[in-house]
Amino acid sequence: MALGNRYKSAPGAGTLAALILVLVFGSPWYSDWVVDNTNANTAGGWWLRLLAWPHWTFNSNDSLREIIVGDLKAILLVILTALFLYLLPGSQLARARGTISQFFAGWASYIFAGGFAALLTTLFLANPSLLGAFNAAGNGAAYGLFVGWIIGLATLGGYRGTK
């Protein structure tokens, strides 16, 4: 890294990584590309499609409610990632920066953020149900499980909060 680890906070780096993931892979351009150019029945195609889960859109054909719920999921994912990165004590309790506990705390933050973002946005759907909320939370947690390692890597070596 150019700036070194003493200038990088673990929650800040993880939140920035989450924001980049949502902005790039949640974009309408990537979502359209991945649907047109990948096969959902292969592992690579499945994973590339999974990256587009917290999509956001500008499509004027969708109802306002669908646009808001989709965008809210992406926004909540980033906000909840930051919140869980500050709340999870794994990297705070570690004796040295860059330990495996810091990696797992970042990864777990993204799993929790994905699950809760999906659960909360389900409440704003036209006909929310408990089963729908559970399914959405499971999809969000699955997204966090398979993509959250990127957040875990981003948090490695950063300091917690103030020095």
Descriptive account of the structure:
- With 163 residues, the protein is mainly alpha-helical.
- The protein has helices spanning 10-25, 28-37, 43-50, 64-87, 90-93, 100-122, 130-147, 149-155.
- It has one domain (5-155).
- It is 67% helix and 0% strand.
- Helix 6 (100-122) packs antiparallel against helix 7 (130-147) and helix 6 (100-122) crosses helix 8 (149-155).
- Keywords: Membrane, Transmembrane, Transmembrane helix.
- The chain crosses the membrane at residues 12-30, 67-88, 100-120, 140-159.
Keywords:
globular; 8 helices; transmembrane helix; 163 residues; transmembrane; membrane
In short:
The protein is mainly α.
